[in-house]
Specification:
The complex is a heterotrimer of chains A (247), B (348) and C (291). In chain A, 40% of the residues lie in helices and 24% in strands. Chain A has 11 helices and 10 strands. Chain A has helices spanning 43-51, 73-79, 96-103, 110-123, 125-129, 140-152, 170-186, 198-203, 222-225, 229-236, 238-244; strands at 4-12, 18-27, 32-36, 58-63, 66-67, 81-84, 158-162, 190-194, 207-212, 215-221. Chain A has a 6-stranded mixed beta sheet, with helices on both faces. Chain A has a 4-stranded antiparallel beta sheet with strand order 2-1-4-5, covered by helices on one side. In chain B, helix 3 (57-81) runs parallel beside helix 7 (183-205) and helix 7 runs antiparallel to helix 10 (230-256). Chain C has helices spanning 2-32, 39-57, 61-83, 93-116, 141-163, 165-175, 177-182, 187-212, 220-234, 239-259, 265-279; strands at residues 131-134, 137-140. Chain C has a two-stranded antiparallel sheet with strand order 1-2. In chain C, helix 1 (2-32) runs antiparallel to helix 8. The chains are: A alpha/beta (247), B mainly alpha (348), C mainly alpha (291). Chains B and C meet through helix 1, helix 6, helix 12 and helix 14 of B and helix 4, helix 9 and helix 11 of C.
Chain lengths: 247, 348, 291
């Protein structure tokens, strides 16, 4: 049985149409998964559903044998599934250190928090230097590192990372991917990645899901997916295909 | 704001961009029903003053004046609040300023408010333009609050200004009509103002201008990206929605023969415009008309049965809360959502 | 010069109370993006609460405040749960809450007028008419106590926000609601608590109002207009802005009241709002993006 199982997820916002129409997928323990697909395919929406930020209209999410569907975000997090959203979502007026402490909001034991902070800061040395700086004064790359570091403070079992390279300079993005690779390959964490930069995303992943128009088109090992002719069709041929389809 | 509502707005905006398929035959039939019903009502309303043997003649006419005035006020508020979603809680400023302008012109120059009403409207429009330039530097709740501040600035000012008689206000010379026919000119003048406001609302609804306003209401950022000068359009909408309230104020002041800050500049006055429009249905032509008629009749009934004004306040507040919680689209909007809007109410 | 200093003293005393009134509003906006137009109506309700407590048992309004705090906290928490979850997901949530609380304000005013009538009232503890004198200055005792109570409450609020676990959650939610959810803050619970706190602060402010000013139900509009101007001016959601704005403007308005006329003193708040909108639309300590 997979660590995280999605079955028939359908979701959308407010009174709007379905963004995700019907998605089922399995997240296996210890693997890095990459969710790819064109803009508006429903990738971020799916992550929000798993994180409990958006209740699905149908379908179930099961984590480690326990149903997560409809749980409050803090309960999902307490279960060990954490979410790093694409716009980083730091606490702008708190210091780097306070942001990290907030990451362990569900942990009440001060000693545990300090311990974890030490370990996390070892992974991101720049954060130690900046620890008393207010988050909104950090550079984009530093903010992304803080955002990842804050998520690690809860010691999650599954980490969902939404577009980690968004808005970053190429060499900074490379750094971030190095970290992600370390989390996945070296530390054996279970990761679910959404990435627009398909090449980079797949390079650090083991398995990949391809999403389009709100449903899963296909999946496969990450290194094979890149050569799949259907990928080219998806990204290049989609416009033509869409024109023929009445929407 | 959290991400969720914003996404929702975007999605709704996208959704409404899809063309709605309408059977032209059905549409033509609805149009015929609509025009027939509107004409019948209009003729009945216009002929009412000729029915002299009506019981409580002046009272009925006075209620008519009231309903028309509020139809005009609510329809004007709707141009800004209904389409762009920018809520002004101080819109009665324009109503009051119009009243004072024509009152002063009558007292000092002897010009009849029936003539100076248009000028009063223009003064209100100019004031709306100015107010818009400042208040639209912000948005959302800050905008609403700045309109409240505007109202209180005017209230404090008129309360203290000797030219306007301070808090005692001014008495106007009585209109030169016989007692018997006193209400009739006001009845027709207000009817005209109401028709003008509804017509204006209809024009806005069906113009590029109105489309721009609705785009702003759906998603301001997108509207801007689409090349709409949102600031300019909002200021224009504010100014336009200030014009008719100025005219209505002028006529209304003359009909009651005095002006006083507490008649025009109380927050409850502006609140009424908001309440009527929201109950009827924001962003629709028929909504403010239905809302105004309903609230005035309800108000009269409650005055007759309860007499106490504080209960009126409770009812006003409770209605607002209930409508917002349970059918925020108002009467017209909710009926349309359910596909049950009768043809004669579908004026859009 | 003496007179100028005296006006500054009186202005600061009043400013402290305004700061207390405005802080409740700011918490509500900061945490939930709720603009509570009925805040001042609930302040008046707090004044009535303390007044009737004083009238029936002789309880000093400052002690009455201690009773009002928990009662209003519960009232606020219940009110929040009853009204706001329904509209939570609606587009333009903040504007929606303005209208909703606008309705609440009318209801509260109408009910208070119905049950308590519209006559002026005021509690009359012994210190209401006393004053401390030092040198050529005087400090009205009642206003001094009110300032003291406001400062104590504001310090408690600050300590709660800075040092407690829930306080961290509240501050986190104020800065970034989404991020707070992501790190496991139960924002529904935080919102309920914050609404309770906002209402408790309104109740407490009402207790102070009960002996500072004669009050009647319809009074709240004037106050809410001043308070709302204050919080926009300070930057919506910024506690620092609200407190600094309150004291600064209260001092200026004390000058206007003394040298131009008391009728014009509220104008300072509204006028300052318009000036700030021209110069810095996001308010003194506000963030452009958070409006």
């Amino acid at each position: 049985m997979a660590l995280l199982e999605l079955r028939g997820i359908r979701a959308g916002y407010g009174i709007g149409p379905d963004i995700v129409t019907d998605v089922s997928l399995d997240i296996e323990a210890g693997r890095t998964h990459c969710l790819i697909g064109p803009n508006g395919a429903g990738k971020s929406t799916l992550l929000k559903v798993i994180a409990g930020l958006l209740p699905p209209r149908a379908g179930t999410v099961v984590f480690d044998g326990q149903p997560l569907t409809g749980r409050r975000p803090d309960r999902v997090l307490a279960g060990g599934v954490c979410f790093v959203p694409q716009d980083r979502n730091l606490f702008p007026e708190m210091t780097v250190k306070e942001n990290l402490v907030m990451g362990a909001y569900l942990v009440r034991d001060r000693a545990v928090i300090n311990n974890r902070m030490k370990r996390v800061v070892e992974m991101f040395p720049i954060l130690a230097e900046r620890s008393h700086q207010v988050a909104q004064t950090l550079s984009g790359g530093e903010q992304q590192q803080l955002s990842l570091a804050r998520a690690l403070m809860i010691e999650p079992k599954v980490m969902m990372i939404d577009e980690p390279s968004l808005g970053l300079a190429p060499q900074v993005a490379t750094q971030i991917f190095d970290v992600i690779k370390r989390l996945g390959a070296d530390m054996g964490m279970t990761l679910l990645l959404v990435e627009q930069n398909v090449r980079m995303g797949l390079a650090v992943s083991d398995w990949s899901f391809v999403l389009d128009l709100g449903s899963k088109r296909f999946e496969g090992p990450a290194d094979a997916i890149l050569d799949d002719p259907r990928i080219r069709d998806l990204y290049l041929g989609r416009l033509a295909e869409r024109r023929e389809r009445p929407t | 704001m959290t991400d969720k509502p914003l996404d929702a707005v975007t999605e709704t905006a996208l959704m409404s961009a899809e063309p709605i398929v309408v059977d032209p035959e059905v549409e033509r039939r609805r149009r015929r029903v609509r025009i027939t019903v509107a004409l019948v009502i209009l003729v009945l309303v216009a002929l009412l003053p000729f029915y002299r043997s009506l019981g409580a003649y002046n009272y009925v006419l006075q209620i008519g004046v009231s309903i028309f005035a509020w139809i005009a006020l609510a329809s004007s508020w709707n141009i800004l609040g209904g389409y762009t979603g920018y809520i002004s809680l101080g819109h009665n400023v324009f109503y009051g300023v119009g009243a004072y302008v024509s009152a002063l012109l009558l007292i000092h120059l002897g010009i009849s408010p029936f003539l100076s009403a248009a000028l009063a409207g223009l003064v209100a429009l100019a004031l709306g333009l100015l107010a818009g330039l400042v208040t639209f530097r912000t948005q959302g709740p800050s905008f609403i609050i700045s309109t409240i501040a505007l109202l209180f600035i005017v209230l404090v000012w008129f309360d203290a200004w000797s030219l306007t008689g301070g808090s005692n206000g001014l008495s106007l010379p009585l209109p030169p009509f016989s007692r018997e026919w006193l209400r009739v000119p006001f009845y027709y003048a207000m009817l005209l103002a109401a028709l003008a406001a509804v017509f204006l609302g209809h024009r806005v609804q069906h113009s590029k201008f109105g489309l721009a306003l609705r785009a702003i209401g759906a998603d301001q950022v997108k509207a801007e990206v689409a090349g709409i000068n949102t600031r300019l359009f909002k200021v224009l909408a504010f100014a336009l929605s200030a014009f008719i309230p100025g005219v209505v104020g002028a006529i209304f002041a003359y009909s009651i023969s005095y002006v006083r800050p507490t008649i025009f500049f109380l927050i409850a006055v502006g609140a009424r415009m908001v309440l009527m429009t929201i109950i009827g249905g924001r962003g629709t032509v028929a909504g403010p008309v239905i809302g105004a008629t309903l609230i005035i009749l309800l108000n009269e009934a409650s005055l007759t049965y309860f007499g106490a004004t504080e209960l009126n306040l409770v009812i006003t507040g409770a209605l607002l809360v209930i409508v917002l919680l349970f059918f925020p689209a108002g009467i017209v909007g909710s009926l349309r959502e359910r596909g049950k809007l009768p043809a004669f109410l579908d004026w859009d | 010069m003496t007179q100028v200093i005296q006006v500054v003293i009186l202005g600061t005393l009043l400013g402290g109370v305004y700061a207390l009134m405005a802080s409740g509003l700011t918490i509500l906006f900061g945490v939930m993006r709720v603009v509570n137009i009925s805040h001042a109506a609930f302040i008046i309700l707090g004044a009535f609460f303390t007044f009737f407590l004083w009238e029936s048992t002789g309880l000093d309004p400052l002690l009455g405040m201690l009773v009002a705090l928990p009662v209003f906290f519960v009232f606020g928490a219940v009110l929040y749960r009853a009204l706001f979850p329904r509209v939570e997901g609606s587009p333009r949530f903040s504007e929606m809450t303005v209208l909703l609380t606008f309705g609440l304000a009318f209801m509260t005013e109408g009910l208070m007028t119905y049950f308590f009538t519209g006559i002026f009232r005021q509690t009359a503890p012994s210190y209401r008419v006393e004053a401390f004198e030092f040198g050529s200055f005087y400090v009205p005792t009642a206003q001094f106590y009110a300032l003291l109570a406001s400062v104590v409450l504001l310090v408690c609020l600050w300590a709660f926000l800075t040092y407690t676990h829930t306080g961290y959650g509240v501050r986190a939610t104020m800065q970034n609601r989404m991020a707070a959810q992501i790190v496991g803050v139960d924002v529904r619970r935080v919102s309920t608590i914050s609404f309770g706190i906002g209402m408790a602060l309104a109740g407490a402010a009402g207790a102070l109002v009960s002996f500072l000013f004669p009050f009647f139900p319809a009074r709240h509009w004037q106050w809410i207009a001043i308070l709302l101007s204050l919080i926009v001016l300070g930057g919506l959601g910024s506690l620092k802005g609200a407190v600094i704005g309150a004291i600064g403007l209260a001092v200026i308005s004390a000058f206007v009241s003394r040298y131009i006329g008391p009728v014009w003193s509220p104008m300072v708040f509204y006028g300052a709002l318009f000036i700030i909108l021209l110069v810095r639309p996001q308010g003194l300590f506000g963030h452009q993006a958070r409006v």
